[in-house]
Specification:
two-stranded antiparallel sheet; mainly alpha; 2 strands
Length: about 325
């Protein structure tokens, strides 16, 4: 494809994909409200819809045997999410406060999924095994968030651990209720959601193919196209939403977007297609991105739990870590 065609087509596809993903998020939230989902599960639905561009781009790359692009989109967008959602959010808002129970519950799942992604791309376990290990943790987390409140009260009455779990779920739901409670869906919202999904998928496929074509033409390594270019572009909707919520003081909502988005990216965008298509041969570049994702996840949630939030200094540290990641990856691939 000629550069004069591929470049504007990439920009157009990116704009369409990102704009339509916002529409998809809002309509799926309304559908979830109509189905009676809890606030936390609504947040998960919103995260999955917002992740549609990066997930679609990653799967497209894997189908075209561009494993470094595919893995790079998922893992690179997760690194970007930590920097843009939590780090930048803390900088802009002057700090984000979290409930420690919410951090411990969601952070443990996030770190586990990051560990699984690293050992999977290193080839230490098959993608199918990685999918099973990550899915068990994520599905357990979802089951807890969607559990009947009467069951949670009975669980809390039986043990201190049950009381702790119920308190963590209640604290998260209390903040998410004010942050994302949408109106109930009308019949037209179901149609709009379906059309939006098709548009996002088509635009994201176009975006990935044109970015890969431009990368090949100009000799840009696949890992740079995936982990830096596509990862940042496809994650912009989450970043804008998170900064908006951080400024409004909705720390739990910001944390939920970051955690849910990253975990769903790995499970749906990396391990699920990897179990079917394969992740390709282990690559030191992909392993570097996965290791940075794990390390930054662990550091971020250590500070978040220890301080009950993220202040501006830690936000600057997280953003700075992303800048080092970008520079290191560019130098390593020159």
């Amino acid at each position: 494809m000629p550069v004069m065609v591929a470049a504007p087509l990439f920009v157009l596809a990116a704009c369409v994909s990102l704009a339509t993903s916002w529409l998809l998020v809002s309509r799926l939230e309304r559908v979830g409200e109509r189905l009676g989902l809890s606030e936390a599960l609504l947040g998960m639905v919103a995260a999955l819809a917002a992740d549609a561009p990066e997930v679609t781009s990653a799967i497209t790359a894997m189908l075209n045997r561009e494993s470094r692009v595919g893995a790079g989109v998922v893992l690179g967008s997760n690194v970007f999410n930590l920097a843009a959602l939590l780090g930048l959010g803390a900088l802009v808002a002057g700090g984000i406060r979290f409930h420690r129970r919410v951090v411990a519950l969601g952070g443990s799942v996030a770190i586990w999924v990051a560990v699984v992604s690293l050992v999977s791309v290193l080839g230490l376990i098959p993608p199918a095994a990685g999918l099973a290990l990550a899915a068990v943790a994520l599905l357990g987390y979802l089951a807890l968030l969607g559990a009947d409140r009467r069951w949670l009260r009975r669980l809390a009455a039986r043990s201190r651990w049950g009381h702790w779990l119920r308190a963590a779920v209640v604290e998260e739901e209390r903040e998410l209720n004010a942050a994302i409670r949408p109106p109930r869906a009308s019949p037209g919202d179901f149609v709009v959601a379906l059309i939006s999904l098709v548009v996002v998928v088509v635009a994201s496929v176009t975006m990935e193919r044109t970015a890969s074509d431009l990368g090949q033409r100009f000799g840009v390594p696949e890992i740079v196209i995936g982990a830096l270019v596509l990862a940042a572009v496809t994650s912009l909707p989450n970043a804008v939403a998170a900064v908006y919520l951080a400024v409004r003081g909705r720390g739990a909502a910001v944390l939920s977007i970051a955690l849910n988005s990253n975990s769903l990216n790995v499970v749906v965008g990396l391990l699920l297609p990897g179990a079917v298509i394969g992740l390709g041969a282990p690559s030191s570049q992909t392993a570097f991105v996965a290791a940075w994702y794990l390390g930054l996840t662990a550091v971020t949630f250590w500070f978040a739990h220890r301080q009950g939030g993220l202040g501006r200094p830690v936000g600057a540290l997280i953003v700075g870590a992303y800048a080092i990641f970008v520079g290191w990856l560019l130098v390593a691939t020159m």
